[in-house]
Sequence to fold (300 residues):
Amino acid sequence: MNPAIETKELTRMFGDFVAVNRVSLAIEPGEVCGFLGPNGAGKSTLIRMLCGILEPSSGSGTVLGYDIIKQSDQIKQRIGYMSQKFSLYEDLTVRENLDFYGGVYDIPYRERSKRIKEMLALAGLEGSENRLVQGLSSGWRQRLALGCALISRPAVVFLDEPTSGVSPTSRRSFFDIIQQLANEGTTVIVTTHFMDEAERCTRLAFISQGHLIAFDTPRNLKYSTIQGHLVELEIPEAIERISSVESLPYVKECNLHGPLLHVLLQSKDYIGELGRFTGAEPREITPSLEDVFITLAKNR
Ligand SMILES: Nc1ncnc2c1ncn2[C@@H]1O[C@H](COP(=O)(O)OP(=O)(O)O)[C@@H](O)[C@H]1O
Ligand SMILES: [Mg+2]
Fold:
């Protein structure tokens, strides 16, 4: 099977600054691929290049077999794109917004009402088609924006932080829709800061300072990245203890997670020793994707 998306050494500079640095990856059809990384890592820039709306400085890439530089028009017709600042028309109704995007994608009038119905069902907006957008909550708007991005039934859809600023319940139902799409064969690229969403992706691309630093399943990332034994410590003024804990010979890493310390030990044998040194009870934990990301970023 040909990959839905493939890049080779894809690079984008802004002046002297390298926003995306020689990223090579291949994404299979029907994957939900999560792009993860801190603000400014280059996720949106990478997505814009893949959508054919921003030219790479060097390197190459294809989306659905089309060249992102030479065939960007063909790509734009075949993908869906929902940006962080997605645009809906506030003074139009739900149906009118969908109808508008149906027009943008040149969907014939007779087909369009069928598609609108489909999108209303997918977004869970049936019965609300005549409501004005300005009266909708952020979760509803996001689902409507997704419906607008999908009205042309794109084979690949790019969702750039689609769930920032919505409630956890809305986020979960949004991700249910994404997974349903992928089950039907759509390739989904989604950027997120939420680890519960990352867990639901087939593969994750960790991006840091323009570099792709890891690309694998959530499960493999956890097992291959964290080498050692991870424990959690609850101690007051945790932040001030990091360097002393990290200087212990049997400690590989020590990071702050909210009010807690996560300590990576060389082996299980040192749990007691760490407990005596810190005066707190180390609790064994399984690594989260957040642990993985911190470790990957540090190792670079
Ligand atoms: N049009 C632009 N001109 C100059 N710098 C830009 C432009 N777009 C993005 N950048 C810079 O590139 C870096 C990556 O940005 P972006 O791709 O938006 O990161 P992310 O989406 O991961 O937060 C940032 O430092 C940003 O300031
Ligand atoms: Mg971004």
About this structure: The chain has two domains: 5-216, 223-299. The pocket of adenosine-5'-diphosphate (ligand 1) is lined by residues 14, 19, 37, 39-45 (CB under 6 Å). The CA atoms of residues 192 and 273 lie 38 Å apart. The chain is about 35% helix and 25% strand.
